[in-house]
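Hi support team,

I submitted a single chain yesterday and got back a structure, but I'm not sure I'm reading the token output correctly. Could someone confirm the output below corresponds to the sequence I sent? I've pasted both exactly as they appear in my results page.

Thanks,
R.
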Amino acid sequence: MTKKMNYKNLLIYPWLCLLPLFFHSSLSCDSVHQACRKLADRDPDLKYHFCVASLESDPRSRTATLEELGVISVMVTISNATNLKSYIFELLEDKRLDPYSKGCLRDCLELYSDAIDKLRNALDDFKNKHYIDAKQGFTSAMDASGTCEEGFMEKEGEASPLTKEDERFFQLCAMDLAFATILDKKSL
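Hi R., thanks for writing in. Yes, this is the structure output for that exact sequence:
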């Protein structure tokens, strides 16, 4: 009888060891939701569900601190801008586009190239807890989306093929800016 009991204990012991991991992962998942709730509450233009989906796209977010979520957010933004540049290159290959649209797309390409550089610099500032400088970088990078859209609007009847992408980039930059703002206030 004692041997059976020990055998049962041996079967249960590994599960007991794993139990804290299950609680930790659920708490970490909650931290993404809590962070996004905090960001969305501070910025009415920032969409809560967009924030959650963006952060959860990176598996590291499951165990990340608030500061690490901010870094993940910036890296998601840089990745988005890089993919957006590739998409613009594809659009520029379209022979059906008129010269005005191609000119706007080339301008957008340059804007997003500059934005990536600004985001990389802002990421360094963010990691070094220079939140004021990071916020300036995020704000400057964010302008790429609006300026890109404005280029298309200058010609009556011209529709931007990047409206959804520009809005997504804007939201991502707003997240980056909100993280830097919250952490800047937290460090005071």
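A quick pointer for reading it: The two ends are 62 Å apart (CA to CA). Let us know if anything else looks off.

Best,
Support desk
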